[in-house]
């Protein structure tokens, strides 16, 4: 296998292997807060709250309609009980973080160390403040404060979709009930599915309800049913971008790169300001050898703060540089990737690749 092929194979492993490794829940701690829009407008449907630890996204949850949120810490973002978006790929390239509960001074009070972790709100076209978590005791106040979403200059705001606004009040109420249920620490999916049935019976073209049905089915490990629901969400509203990203994520997990492109490219045409979509696009286009398309998306992330959330971007850019014969630049990007502290196996593989290049005289130390 030549060096370019090795790089491509390593990237494929790095994208998918963490999704297959499930570790037990080492404990849980809950924090609460509220997301607000700077201008006081309602929280748009696509808004999320993100937990970021050591520059990698570990968990995403949707706030309630009034902006309140609950984040259960200490669980892997791929836990089926966690409403994570995109559910199907979790945070590709990330590994579960550790929250070792300690018994201090013999007291029956646990302490969770979330040093290096922070919460932020995520919405295309907006940025928010960050709330650092740090060490916390089990009996500490769970309230962490407000996350304020502010519109980025020159970027159009994402508004609640017209399809959702057109939903009859009873259908919207049932949808909100379902969303609240799936966000619980131990959701009752039978209740959620019942509410979603009410929503869709009353409004069969309710795109957000079809999307949430897909999320719920994924949580129940019904990938076929989830795929069908996401397709129906698109049929109901072809401008609703979330199900496109979900479908692309599902195809990426299965390493069906060409199928993933069929969903991620339209998603970026609908909204070119979604960092995760660019991360998916960079990954799948790289796998297909579409290096120009991969580079465009990867560079958008690399030149922004978003690269901290998707550190595998460094690796993708390194692979592209290697394919073009620019080994010094490739090595620089690979070293950037190593600085994000990937898992031990990937670290060893990248270091071995760099050592080979040094021996061959392709790069200097």
SSE layout:
Elements (H helix, E strand, L loop, with lengths): L2 H18 L8 E9 L10 E6 L2 E6 L6 E6 L28 E2 L6 E13 L3 E3 L1 E8 L5 E9 L10 H4 L3 H14 L6 H14 L4 H13 L3 H14 L5 H12 L3 H14 L4 H13 L3 H12 L9 H12 L3 H13 L4 H16 L6
Structure in words:
Strands 2, 3, 5, 6 and 8 form a five-stranded antiparallel β-sheet that branches. A four-stranded mixed β-sheet has the order 4-1-9-7, with no helix packed on it. 46% of the residues lie in helices and 17% in strands. The protein is built from 13 helices and nine strands. The chain has two domains: 215 residues, Alpha Horseshoe (Serine Threonine Protein Phosphatase 5, Tetratricopeptide repeat); 132 residues, Immunoglobulin-like.
Strand content: 15-25%
Number of domains: 2
Secondary-structure element series: HEEEEEEEEEHHHHHHHHHHHH
**Helix content percent band:** 40-55%
Write down the Rg: 21 Å
Mean pLDDT: 79
What's the helix count? 13
CATH homology superfamily name of the largest domain = Tetratricopeptide repeat domain
Could you tell me the number of beta strands? 9
What does the main sheet amount to? 5 strands, antiparallel
Distance between the termini: 24 Å
CATH second-level architecture of the largest domain: Alpha Horseshoe
Q: Structural class of the helix and strand makeup? A: alpha+beta
**Anisotropy-based shape:** globular
- CATH level-1 class of the largest domain: Mainly Alpha
How is the CATH topology of the largest domain named? Serine Threonine Protein Phosphatase 5, Tetratricopeptide repeat
